[in-house]
Specification:
alpha+beta, rod-shaped, 522 residues, binds adenosine-5'-diphosphate, two-stranded antiparallel sheet, 5-stranded mixed beta sheet, 11 helices
């Protein structure tokens, strides 16, 4: 199977090739220019210098010509002095030519020139000797042979020059060849670079820019983009958004899973609890009845009376548990009435008088004025208050104070509501437990069921209200209940405002007042 080279590797390879070609091209250029420089140096330093030496030799030779003839004509010795000077110059040039001669061939040619020149000067000296001694005829004949030496010398110089001219031409040719090669390499490097640049652009456009643009277009379609002119910034912003959404979704999923689990658990426990409570309730009622009739019919001594008291307490405890389970598994339907919650507060406190005394707990109610009428099920609200008060009593083992504050307030949207604060002077609820106390079956008490606060929360929610546990700076527990004040059409049927179901009871029932029913904690 053909394996696809990863995009990163492909980009890396193309970039490396591009850089490689550029570096290689540069190196070749440096090498070739160095070579051309060498060739030029050879021409300038050696061949041209040698050529010039041959030229100066030739000039120095030509300059010697004519002096003997002039001397022959007028006998002036000055011509001979000048000839001597030019001979001097020739020898100097010859020495110079030797000094720059590079190879044996050059030296050999120079040696031939020197030898020929010696013959030439010797012949000329003889001619001068003839002229001086008046043998003009002999001198003229010998002069002719000196001329031959002269032309032979000129030719030797010419050959020497030609030899270096060839060197120069060869160097020129070599330079031309190198320049052509250099051009070919430069053009190949250019073509290679352009080709690789095209490949690189194709990869960048096809595999990076186009997908990025497509993503950008998709992102623009899916919502407003913060940086419309910066694709990368816009995409990274979108990706951040997506990651945050994903995190949020994960969190919500985890929460849903948790609540689903909780719901399943509760449903199962509810079924069990309902079944169990139902089975226990009838025999248990009969036990209670029999016990109380026994108490009435028997004459008990003090010790037996104490035992009876303990049995009664325990029976009441079991009764509370059964009641709690029944309520938890089958919450009663709300029987709404329009009344002031202040009356329910009074009722709950009244109901618990005996219990409060036994716990040595005093209750104060702070009430500016009676709360406005709201739609509540008084029995359920009473149960809420009873649960909170009993919890406070149980928390204050050595007695204490419960304060119930009533006031009106508004919610976040400015809608009117009533607020009931229940605070105590007990140890309070540790911060790490505040999230758990409303969970069903969470209890820190040895004989607790952990259902009281979860029932309280459910009742308040069913009323469209809220309950929260406020931090109270180590001053005991502080529960705050808020209930909405609903607008009612005050008609005979007292129908609830739109959106609320099953919350109003006919006004006719208002006069009957709340029915006394023991709370789940009672
Ligand atoms: P239970 O009373 O059966 O334990 P609840 O649901 O009524 O169940 O209460 C749960 C837990 O909340 C209690 O066990 C207790 O730890 C804590 N709690 C409730 N009310 C108070 C309070 N007023 N002061 C201190 N702790 C409290």
């Amino acid at each position: 199977m053909k394996r696809k080279i990863p995009l990163r590797t492909r980009l890396f390879l193309v970039m490396s090739a591009l850089v490689g070609i550029t570096v290689m091209g540069g190196l070749v250029m440096i090498w070739y220019t160095h070579r051309i420089e060498g060739v030029l140096n050879t021409i300038i330093e050696k061949d041209i210098a040698a050529y010039q030496a041959a030229e100066t030799l030739q000039v120095a030779l030509i300059n010697q010509k004519g002096f003997v003839t002039y001397y022959f004509q007028d006998g002036n010795p000055d011509w001979l002095r000048q000839l001597g000077e030019y001979r001097q110059i020739f020898r100097m040039r010859l020495l110079e030519a030797y000094s720059i001669a590079e190879n044996p061939h050059q030296r050999e040619t120079l040696a031939r020139i020197e030898k020929e020149y010696e013959h030439y000067t010797a012949t000329k000296d003889k001619v001068i000797g003839y002229y001086k001694s008046g043998l003009r005829q002999e001198g003229a004949i010998l002069h002719q042979s000196a001329r031959e030496h002269f032309y032979s010398l000129i030719e030797l110089c010419e050959n020497y020059k030609k030899f270096h001219t060839q060197g120069i031409m060869a160097a020129k040719q070599e330079t031309l060849v190198q320049a052509v090669r250099l051009r070919i390499i430069a053009v190949s490097a250019m073509i290679g670079s352009i080709g690789l640049a095209v490949v690189l652009s194709a990869i960048l456009i096809g595999q990076i820019l186009q997908p990025v643009n497509r993503m950008f277009e998709a992102a623009s379609r899916s919502g407003a983009i913060e940086y419309p002119n910066n694709v990368v910034a816009a995409l990274s912003q979108k990706v951040h958004g997506l990651i945050e959404d994903m995190d949020q979704t994960h969190l919500e999923l985890a929460r849903s899973r948790e609540s689903l689990l909780q719901a399943e658990k509760l449903a199962m426990v509810g079924k069990l609890a309902a079944g169990m409570a139902h089975s226990i309730r009838n025999p248990f009622t009969s036990v209670k009845m029999r016990l109380f009739s026994l108490n009435r019919s028997l004459e008990l001594n003090d010790e037996q009376k104490e035992d009876f008291q303990v049995i009664s307490e325990e029976i009441r405890h079991i009764d509370t548990i059964v009641q709690n389970f029944l309520e938890f598994s089958r919450p009663p339907k709300l029987k709404m009435q329009v009344l002031s919650p202040s009356s329910v507060v009074d009722m709950a406190v009244q109901l618990l008088q005996h219990r409060l005394k036994s716990y040595d707990v005093a209750v104060t109610v702070e009430r500016g004025q009676t709360l406005p009428e709201v739609s509540v099920d008084p029995e359920q609200l009473k149960e809420v208050l009873v649960n909170l008060i009993i919890n406070a009593c149980e928390a204050m083992v050595n007695g204490g104070q419960i304060n119930i504050t009533e006031r009106t307030a508004t919610d976040d949207q400015g809608k009117p509501m009533i607020e009931l604060q229940v605070t105590d002077t007990g140890p309070g609820i540790p911060e790490n437990l505040t999230g758990k106390v409303f969970q069903p079956f969470f209890t820190t008490k040895e004989e607790g069921t952990g259902l009281g606060l979860s029932i309280v929360e459910r009742i308040i929610h069913e009323h469209g209200g809220k309950i929260r546990l406020e931090p109270n700076k180590g001053l005991g527990a502080k529960f705050i209940i808020t209930l909405p004040v609903l607008e009612f059409e005050r008609t005979a049927d007292c129908k609830p405002a739109a959106g609320r179901k099953n919350i109003a009871r006919p006004l006719a029932e208002r006069s009957q007042g709340p029915q006394e029913k023991p709370s789940s904690k009672e």
